[in-house]
Amino acid sequence: MESRTRRIFLSLARPFAAALLVAATGHAVAAEGTVDPLDPMSEEPLIEPEVERREVKEVNIDTENIEVGVSAGVLSIEDFGSSGVVGASVAWHFTEDLFLQANFASSKAGLSSYEVLSGSARLLSDSEREYTAYDLSVGYNLFPGEAFIGRGRAYNTAFYVLAGIGSTNFGGDDRFTLNLGVGYRLLPTDWLAWHIGFRDHVFSSDITGQEKNTHNMELQTGITTFF
Amino acid sequence: MQAAVRHAFLFACALVAVLGLLATRAHAAEPARVTVVDPFVELHSGAGRGYPVLEVVEHGSEVEVIEQRTTWYRLRTKRGSEGWAAREQMLRTLTPAGETFREDVETLDDFQAHRWEMGAWLGDYEGSALMGLYGAWRFVPTLTAELSAQQAVGRAADSLVVDVSLAGHPFPGSRYAPYVAVGTGLVQTEPSTVLVGANRREDQTLSVAGGLQAWVSRAFVLRLEYRHYVLLTSREEHENLDTWKAGLAVFF
């Protein structure tokens, strides 16, 4: 690097030095006794380059692979009606196709039809109706594309699929949960995204008396930002 | 409700860790510039191979690099238009210093010299599904201090397992780094609600572990671990537990 810079300076300096030499010889008599600028043995520097040095830094580019956001929607908890659900998510995009997403969701179950019809019997206490879930999923941007709104606007979008595992706390127990989902992401700007998605949270439950796999469907929409 | 708080807390921890990681990545004060070496660079309308090419930048033109998303770079031309260029073409551009543009990605050398690591793992905890997060700090090349929190979800009981460990890496210079660890921690076991009369209990643990770390690419590490726990219960006999875990981590 140093030798390259030196070479550049030398090549810049050469015509300069030649011009100086002409000037110097023109006044050779007057200049007698001064240092010869082209004498390699001369102590004085050949020329002081007035070239501003360019700072050479490591290229430091803003990477925006992490997406953080919040969501809200409707969760249908099997046997316990549908309730509102709120959530938060962090996603890390590895490639243009693949991403890893961590999700957290919180909801509260309603009454089962049995509880409504029987009048008083309760299958779950109030605190057991709290539904909290987290999961880690792998996502794949199946159909990346663009959406056109009107004549003059195009926004980048992607239809993605998700699969993952996690844990759901419901009915007083933690339950190993399988998550499957699809989603649609639209980017109004480069750093903001709007999502709409549908997910199935599958876990085994014995709340209604017999062990079975329950499917808990979540329809949600959310806003995320890229960092 | 307590479980809800616990879950929210675990999630918040993960979130803070991720944001902390982000904060450590310094942002460029002024945009980087590169000069095109290829006959031309194609600017796509989005960060993906299928997005249409809206513009091309000719050989010799200088462009601003605004940001990077996965393997795509958003460039701004002198005329002010923007588009996404693929990594392959970016690698054939020159920096203002006249050097070939290099991607700022981690290499095997970085893996061998890394100090911090954060990951998630899944596994088996005596027949229960185990999920957890961990963080590790390598304070000398051969030793790491680790903190991990995991949840085991089983038919009979759910457990929260927290470990603090010291791990020794005898071969820190290789791509596949085996290690041995000793640790201590807590296990909080909550029997399932169907089992009436069982109480929640908390036991201190001692553990020994052995495992392997393997560098995959960039900042990603695969990890496999076997850990044997001795639960120091208040009952007559100590309880022995075995766990297997496999995980994915990032280092920085």
How would you describe this protein?
The complex is a heterodimer of chains A (227) and B (252). Chain A is mainly β and 227 residues long. Chain A has two domains: 1-60, no CATH class; 66-226, Porin. Chain A has helices at 2-26, 113-118, and strands at 66-76, 82-93, 98-108, 130-149, 153-170, 173-187, 192-205, 212-226. An eight-stranded antiparallel barrel of chain A has the order 1-2-3-4-5-6-7-8. The longest helix of chain A is centred in the first third of the chain and has 25 residues, at 2-26. Chain A is elongated and about 105 Å long. Chain A starts with a helix and ends with a strand. In chain A, 30% of the residues are buried. Chain B has 252 residues and is mainly beta. Chain B folds into two domains: 32-94, SH3 Domains (SH3 type barrels, Roll); 109-251, Porin (Beta Barrel). In chain B, the strands form three sheets. Chain B has an eight-stranded antiparallel β-barrel. In chain B, strands 6-5-4-1-7 form a five-stranded antiparallel beta sheet.
Topology:
The complex is a heterodimer of chains A (227) and B (252).
Chain A (H helix, E strand, L loop, with lengths): L1 H25 L39 E11 L5 E12 L4 E11 L4 H6 L11 E20 L3 E18 L2 E15 L4 E14 L6 E15 L1
Antiparallel strand pairs in A: 1-2, 1-8, 2-3, 3-4, 4-5, 5-6, 6-7, 7-8
Chain B lengths: L1 H23 L7 E5 L3 E5 L8 E6 L3 E8 L2 E5 L5 E5 H4 L2 E2 L13 H6 L2 E10 L2 E13 L2 E11 L3 E12 L7 E16 L9 E17 L2 E13 L6 E13 L1
Antiparallel strand pairs in B: 1-4, 1-7, 2-3, 4-5, 5-6, 8-9, 8-15, 9-10, 10-11, 11-12, 12-13, 13-14, 14-15
